[in-house]
Design a protein that fits this description.
Elements (H helix, E strand, L loop, with lengths): L4 E5 L20 E6 L4 H9 L5 E6 L1 H14 L5 E5 L5 H6 L5 H7 L11 E3 L2 E3 L2 E5 L4 H4 L2 H7 L1 H10 L7 E7 L2 E13 L3 E2 L3 E2 L12 E6 L6
Parallel strand pairs: 1-2, 1-3, 3-4
Antiparallel strand pairs: 5-6, 7-9, 8-9, 9-12, 10-11
Length: 224
Amino acid sequence: MTPRIFFIGNTESGKGIPTINDASYAHLNIVSKESIQQDPEALMERIKTTDFDVLAAMGGDGTISAAFTMAAALNLKQPILMLPSGTTNDIAKNYYETVNIEEILTTTDFTTTITTDLGVVNDKVFSYALTFGYLSNVPYTTDQKLKNKFGYFAYMLRGFWEIWKLKKYRLDVNVDDEIVKGKFSFVSITNTKKMANFVRFPDSTDLADGLFEVMLVRTPKTPV
């Protein structure tokens, strides 16, 4: 029996991706097609009132992260199927051997699921990375047209213009009963094996062990 799929997608993410109405997905039993760009409350209401077996999210890391957030907020029991079509697709790369959507659709065993940790900060759920400081805003301020045209290189271009905006934050960080003090320009709390193509954690990193990786970058004396 083909599972009933509630489909949410970001038609603007990535580089040359198909739209959520693409005929290549016609063989799936999709009971609802929704855009992630709509009002979040309205989307969550549709998810809550629709009978389905799998929540499928097609888009970049932001879209897939939003799917995790909504699923947690609604306490969904249905699994999430990730269909990566963004610029970096870091979240999907943690779990899949490929980020090719067609391969994922043809090889996915809908009877088998895996678990992963979610983090909560101030009642906000995150599934991948919580960051602040230098370059943290680059994924959100990079022009979408540039991302569609140049892919990951668009982030690098945006990051170059941010190099002179280095700030410092005086922090006391309590990690594993140890207090780390100092001035930091970048902080991340992550549950991933790689972040933004420039930070890689060991392949042995367990995404369902109840632990998160913390990275603190002290403020340098000069920007370069």
